């Protein structure tokens, strides 16, 4: 027996979405719960796949099954497909599992031909209407199925309007329509070489084929690529008996949401038109009315509709997006689906529905896309605003900001302090620019990836940032940047010009744009409190400053998972001391510089530990290579070369130049000594701690002195000292001893007893692979998945994202960007090994993650699955992480 | 009962080396096979460890066990320790498991005091002799055990010589000696605060303590560090009754090897002195005689000695290094051990002993240290030559060469072609220098590590190279380099000065030095043929050129494991075309350049496949990032800056400068576009193949066209096409298809059928972790352990070796440099995972290794253990690998 390719609506149900498509499954469901749905049938997605498997041939018995099903529809309605007297007309719609713009949408009135058009006239007693249906059908069908030119039809239409002297198509007389239909058919023959099919079954077959084909048109393919929808799902085809909303004033059509999709308020939200078909609403010829007005116009229908909305919400236990048609005073449901909504609405609806006992907390948690919370946490550009986008870079730190262009950090600082709103624009930022970044509303750079200095600093500060905007050509000398315009020429934006940046999308926009302010409603807090009840994994934040820690705490973080001490080294007033330390010729000189840094670091740690009092704070000792704190090598080379040239050509000031040259050359020499071919894999992390134990020693002392001070002041503190980049147990053993010795020394000096733990980042494959050994020396592990992804893939993030990950996406080489979504197969496998081996050695081992994946929902789910104790992310992602962690717990319970 | 700390010689045996030390175990063994050994006892290494465990206290009952054993020795000899009439005198010697210079060596004549010295006089009838023994004992014991000053004794000795007016100590009269002994004792009391101990048992206890302590003196610790000997082995102490070789002309002492340790010839090799003690031989006062002369002087003793040598060789089945003493015409054996030997001797002795049926082939294989074969494969500096070493760099490519200093590749080429011997000296080399390298005898660079361009190219060519010689300051302008001298000042070496370099040790030497030429003896060939019989793992070579392939084949390689195609791109005449390809603005331009490269690459592949006809050749498609083929960014920046300055200051030639400036800036822009932060983790390997499929397409075509040509000419070829740097199966699937399509196209075009395989490097952790998937698309795996080590450790080799691996060695953080000895725990774990997962998917998967570890014995053993099919290494390491592979098979059979 052949496979079942065709289902009557009454044979399906909502759960059969992958077979019947979203639309078909819901039509079936509505039919079966007794709602008024025009009868019809659905051709399965499997039929579509079989069609492609057979080299674009229909699978065996498909059309005979369609015919058989159609006969049952005919029986139900007492009409016959192709019957000149009482013809059954149908609509044909695609219906994929995920709704997909770009695919063929709808063919209405299929079944009309030169004969059945008379039957329709008969049945409706309206020749003009019947003819208009027919000419629309020819137009739509010839366009979509036969490939005739849309413009040619418009051309003919126009000529008839002119001839008859009317403005709108609906003013055309039956005679005009009749003549026009003949012209249409001639034109179709001429341009497509085919006669317009008169056989309704041939029409239907053509329409089904067109739906199948539209699955693989360019727009659909691109849409699937962007939305990561598999190519092998296929589309279903819905063939449904026609109902008409445009047969008179007791007819109409409309769409409605059961709740406000923008705010979540529990009121019907939608619009309708009397005497109109769906396409009229879309065409915008008449302005639709608010759904509430239907109550006055058709009270009975309205009551029935409200009732059905209630049934559907209860049935689907979710806010519904509904299409309906009224024919001759009778209400017909054409579609229902879960309604799309804003983040704010999603939160409110979820919380309200729990209070209405429609869903439980676990379900509520799953109703909100964690990533959408970002909208609620940052200012954003009003989505209705009209924008002039002048360039697009990487969305490095969410939010949006408008301000005057400034190219210099000092100027940014000065202007910012006067209250001026500014956007700091740089090719890239360095630690030298921090004071300018602090005062800027937003940061825009032309180079650097999602982990560039600008991006990392901005995210941490919750400041918006667009980086790596490569079409921007910045000319510091002229104090302007140039971008190519859409027209192909170049446009300059000068210092003081106003621009806006959208850190959530990467857009750079001309001028000031309207913004929506973030608001954290009580529903938001309620939902997240439920998430906290449900989730089993802790959520901490990555923060380096007391104010960031406070922000994180306000967002619900219960600890700091990563406090990067190098950001403290990079503060503008400290950099000279850090440089002095680096340029030291020997241990004694270095210790002099370190002694100056000690009280500063102590103050840093004091502040952050105090802000997080009662919660653990994981402090990572110095991680980046030392050359990051020194001037750029190329800049120095240019300086030196210029001075040499000046010496050669200019006669004056030789003395002064020579002395400066000597100084710069000495600095250049040091920079060159520290130069690394692959700094990512270079002299950093614990490797620094081993070659310069005095640096880590100073940091440990600063931590413990701050701890002792706080304990004396009565604060509860839980410091965790973290050694970065360990690859071998011996590294950790050596440095752990240094930390323990320092703690004991500080306890002895201050007479204060305090608790602390020592642990390590797991961010290099070898550490994961030998976690059983490393756990002997570590009280905790924290996965640094940014670096672990870099080393596991052998991808330098900065290089990969700008050089080849784009090609990888286009060619579908990698399913996801592994720097955004944790790679479970590779990186995840190492994490799993590390957790298992680590806990085998030390069952009480605390394990967390502090890479950027710690704030990404799918990655958080993986962390939940392998049993991590906490995730840690930037403060503004803490709510997202809390929600995602709860979803992971529900999904995998 | 207490532990047994003391063994009489007759209680031990050779196998107890770890308990009794090497010397003690062999004394016991000789005693038990009936050879004449002066009776004695050995205190175990466990006693030494117990001593340290007890805070430097003797373990319980140690001295009582010593006393009991000593009583048995007394009984055997009829003498008594401390007996004024007939005293037993003993020597006390340290005896670690591995012989260790730097530890306390020997105390002789222990047991002498003011009374027993008379007993010795009585027994020997020689008062002068007895007194001389006593004063020597006081001197030695006070120095070693009591810490008296050696110089003070010499001072007193000198005063007595002066007083008596004699030149040598042995001319001193008994009276002088007697008086001197009193002076010695006074001096010892004065300088050490202790009386010289008169109680022999106290003397013995002090000597034992001194031996134990010497285990942890600075020199011993450093020696263990260098030779990687564990610190917890401890040393044994041998207490042996004295025999005297200096009691008259029927006495003597000597050392001998049972075969020539330099050549391996089977003739007794050694020397002796009549009427002398061991220390006299060392002191060099008299010249020892060749051992053969003993036959005339003491025929019976000589015959007995020859006989004993035979017994010992048969017993130990190895060449022996023997110490003996003759007292009153009686021969005593004082030590035997396996003799150290040169590589040449090791090979000859091993092969000879198989022919003598002394050992079997498996044993012979194990008798030669694979690394030592290097000596036989390269010229080397005569080890007896006196050298002026002026600097030391990294031993980048073994061998040695002398030649005139040249700083420029063009000049090197020109001079080299005239037959001049030259050493090319550069800060670092680039592909531009290849023509100079080819003509040079050796390469010396001041920058770059073991994988720098110079090092890699030199190893491949079998040319000697010292690189990263950082004390060298090269001044191209002055055509000289400057090095600091030992005296602390600077010395310049100019172009044309002659230097020598030793690529096996990294030494740079002034002037020409005597060299030893390599010679591959028939024994060498025999031994390696046995290795081939025994080993189960294949040995291939890494080679890029036909002549290298031929060399590898001559050394016994049975295939090419890695043919790097980029080296072909770097040839001087091709670089401009490669650059043209890179600078192409679009696909069309790039294809024009690629079309020019195609015939060149085809010729390359033709040559190497032909040279290796009958064997597989694994060709890796382009691997390095494209910027490696472009000029250095900093150089371009300097150029541009100079031109800008010239424009500013100089008025003439503005036009010309401007045009050149524009061109250079364009190039700089491209270089900057290609710039990477971490090129090691950047846009290279298959990532290039995916973004520029036309490059890999050209290479695949060149390979297959060469294959078709060779097949037509009747050659058997086995091409393996290797895709580098795969991290995800999709990369390999995409590129494999490209290769397969190309092969099919070439077969269709040429009408020639040929076989080939497609596989991948496993050089990134993710590839190893997902090997089960990757094996679906790969017919072979080849471990690129250089890169795999870099990514598994997160160590950039270039940076790690120059920046922090030194500290790691000093602090014993890592047991070995993982770039030299494969890290079994981390990298090895990944390899094991990859082999298991890969073979689970594809049981017939061919797996090899082509990183530098492929030529390192311990790494080869690991490859054997995890079941690899082959190792591949540079041609000159092929013999080493063959031997190491055989040893691995024997050791793990």
Automatic annotation (TrEMBL), chains A, B:
Keywords: ATP-binding, Kinase, Magnesium, Metal-binding, Nucleotide-binding, Pyruvate, Transferase. Residues 420-506 form the PEP-utilising enzyme mobile domain. Its EC number is 2.7.9.1. Residues 18-55, 62-299, 305-356 form the Pyruvate phosphate dikinase AMP/ATP-binding domain. The active site is at residues 453, 850. Residues 522-889 form the PEP-utilising enzyme C-terminal domain. Its cofactor is Mg(2+). This is Pyruvate, phosphate dikinase. It comes from Heliobacterium mobile.
